[in-house]
Structures are given as C-alpha cells and as structure tokens.
Specification:
The protein is α+β, with helices and mostly antiparallel strands. The chain is 16% helix and 47% strand. Strands 1, 2, 3, 4, 5, 6, 9 and 10 form an 8-stranded antiparallel beta sheet that branches. The chain has a two-stranded antiparallel sheet with strand order 7-8. This is Pyridoxamine 5'-phosphate oxidase N-terminal domain-containing protein.
C-alpha cells in the first residue's frame, strides 16, 4: 500500500467526472463506454443510460464490470488512472438522489421508460506504477492496490 497512490487516486476521482465502463455481451464480445458519473461517500458510481444501449443490455446478463478513470489532462506520457472492478446494477427507483462529496448540492438522477439509473459498486481499486531495478531502469508495470477504506478517508473528499 502506498500513501502516494492513495492520494493520487483520490485526486483523480475528484477531478475527472468520466468513467470508462467495460462490459461483456452474452457471446463474449467486449464493449467499452465512456460515461459521465458521480460517486457517493462509499465510492459507488452512478450514471443514467438508455436501457437499450449495448452496455446496459450487457449489464442485465452479466453485471461484472471493469472501469477506468483516466486523467488525460496531463502532459503526454504522464497521465495516470484509477482502475477498478466491480458489479453494476440497474436501479429500480425512478429517481435517485446522490450526495456526491465533490458537489455543493446532491445530484438527482431521474430514470424513465427509456433512461435507467445505474450504479457500480467497486470490489477492488488500484493504480498502475512501474517497477524499476536498482539502477532506476524500467522493469515492468505493476498494480498498486488502493484500499477503499483508506481512499474514503482521504482529505480530498469533503462531506456534505
């Protein structure tokens, strides 16, 4: 566990409102969708999508997902991302109020017959880093887990 990675992950989650959601169809075809989302104090992410979109249909048959929040605003070669796997759910409510730590006021998501509200619950979160040898030469990419309980307590997340 790395304090630096915990802090960087919190900064990226706070700064970037888009997640990239990866799903898989019944016949094993991958699908990737960039989505505008918000998150709550428990790091559950919410968005609204057409229930007939490919990712929405995929979620109904397989709710296992992979998400990336990537900070592409950085200079070339320096961008970083937060990765997480989890489970996504279509919410039954037609309206959901989300108290997002980075927003002054709660956000209301409204679903209807076409648009549905979705939530992803992360199971494991990490950042990538590189391993270097004793001379500082790149060896390989590694995953550095970012514990959710630690991430939830980062000072970058204000409560409402």
């Amino acid at each position: 566990m790395s304090h630096i990675h915990n802090k960087k992950a919190a900064e990226i989650i706070k700064k970037i409102p888009y997640i990239t959601l990866a799903t898989v169809s019944d016949d094993g075809q991958p699908w990737n969708s960039p989505l505008w989302s918000v998150y709550d104090k428990d790091l559950n992410f919410y968005w609204v999508s057409d229930q007939k979109s490919v990712h929405s249909e995929n979620l109904r048959s397989n709710n296992k997902v992979f998400c990336v929040i990537y900070d592409s605003t950085m200079a070339e070669g320096t961008g970083e991302g937060v990765y997480f796997k989890g489970k996504a759910f279509e919410l039954a409510e037609r309206e959901v109020l989300v108290e997002c730590p980075t927003r002054e006021k709660p956000i209301t998501f409204k679903g209807n017959d076409i648009l549905k509200i979705y939530k992803v619950v992360p199971e494991k979160i990490w950042m990538n880093d590189d391993e270097k040898d004793v001379n500082g030469k790149y060896v390989r990419d590694i995953k550095v887990e970012v514990p959710q309980d630690v991430l939830k307590t980062q000072h970058l997340f204000r409560t409402l």
